[in-house]
Amino acid sequence: MIDAISITLLVAxxxxxxxxxAFTLGLFRSPVRTARQENPPPFVSVVIAAxxxxxxxxxxxxxxxxxxxxSDRFEVLVVNDGSQDQTAQIVSxxxxxxxxxxxxxxxxxxxxxxxxxxxxxxxxxxARGDIILTTDADCRPxxxxxxxxxxxxxxxxxxxxxxxxxxxxxxxxxxxxRLQALDFLALMSAAAGAANLGVPxxxxxxxxxxxxTLFERVGGFREIxxxxxxxxxxxxxxxxKAKSGRIVFATHPETFISTWRSESPxxxxxxxxxxxxxxxxxxxxNPPFFAYIASIFLINLLAxxxxxxxxxxxxGNLALCCWIGxxxxxxLVICRAARRFGRTDLLFLLPVWECLQVPYTILIGLAGxxxxxxxxxxxxxxxxxxxxxxxxxxxxxxxxx
Length: 401
Fold this sequence. Notes:
disordered C terminus, alpha/beta, 401 residues, globular, Spore Coat Polysaccharide Biosynthesis Protein SpsA, Chain A, single chain, 2 domains
């Protein structure tokens, strides 16, 4: 007789493998077509939220100064989020009458929004651009970044997801940094594969673009404003539900972004907990995506339990087969993505990464959904609470027009 654990494990594994195959097929597609060049080209606003980024913001702005996109057709808005270092002063050094770089301050604006959504809202509200591009202060854009991302905006495209990666200058990555890079590549693999199939699931604020009208149409961050994370992936789901233009993935190398800051083990733990805190919200915004996330958690939880205790159909054999099936599915997706995005240097770590996925997924999944975490020196709770706005009912009709 097949027990409940066996059935759950089989269903989760089957769902996971089917989705992995779909992602792989998506990675062979490239539905993005270059848009016809407008004259003049659309005005673009690059929005960066910066908190205590004195060591990073300068090189980031240097990269934006060297863009091939016409300098009179884009602006850079750096929003200082209560920095306690020299971030504001460094940004000020780049501003001036002839500069297209502007420094803003959060102040008391948008008090109901949590974490990064406050400075992002300040920047987007002040933005003059038809297209909003977002990146982080620790990222280094290629000179072709703005031009490449804008070229993806055909008339029927509402948002463009960009590829980002961990890539440090000067010296090779350490073992732990390579593991971080491979883990992030796995996330980008799923994001690219799904988007190429017309089912956008995830994005990174390190490299994301959308029409300002679409941002306003979904009400900005209001619906997800209480969440300490999700200024990218949750916003993407709101935009997907709005059905106001295609959401595509930019696969051309000139659009790639690299982050030059790796996390310490403690920082990595806090970062992934913050990301995992969004999982329960996906149950409401995108139930199929939540089912995919749940399948990952269940496989990593039940497979080792069944393997160690024999508490599954056919003893531990079923659990072992399911875990091997998941590992092969991961290999299929990540190998394709590594070739597509030029990161085959990370593939030798796949066996190590796969083994670490078991404790990592269980611990991060539980801690992210139930615990607390630190971001930029501030404490946040991961628990779900009702989002309230005294003005929401009054403003919502206009936002949806």
